[in-house]
Amino acid sequence: RLFVVATSVSVQSQLQYSKALSGTLRALGLPNGTLLTLGATLRGMGASIPMKQAAPLVREEIWAFFAEHVLSPDAQMRRLSFAVLLAWKCGARWGEVSKPRRSDFLELTSERITI
Q: b or e along 32-50 (b: 16 or more beta carbons within 10 Å of the residue's beta carbon)?
């Protein structure tokens, strides 16, 4: 139970975790009442309502955004355009690119950045 509550994920994910753990405990013949109560509480908090997610951008949309902002006079918009492109290219590994460390870069020079 503590594992499910200690994770910093949405209530929908916590509900899925509690269901999986509850089923495992039941199969092992161990008590799972606490997880059943947690599941009922999470459902009461709206966990059974599916999250609405935005449709993913297609290649043409992301390149149009990048092309429009990469040469912007605003330095913040240039950085944003690169960040959006990097996030889109590495979307399956967003956790790895959201907070890069120096050790994540294979090559880091003024001419080239290799991640």
A: beebeebbeebeeeebeee
Q: Which of the two residues, 94 and 102, has the higher pLDDT score?
A: 102
Residue 108 to residues 46, 72, 85, 93, 95: CA-CA distances in angstroms?
A: 45, 23, 18, 20, 20
1: Cβ contacts below 8 Å, ≥ 6 apart: 18, 21, 34, 35, 38
Cα–Cα distance list, 18 to 27, 46, 63, 86, 113 (Å): 14, 15, 41, 34, 42
Instruction: Assign 5 a pLDDT band (cuts: 50, 70, 90).
Output: low
Q: Which residue has the tokens 């039941």?
A: 26
Burial class (CB in 10 A: 0-12, 13-18, 19+), 1: middle
Q: What does the CA dihedral 26, 31, 34, 36 come to, rounded to 10 degrees?
A: 30
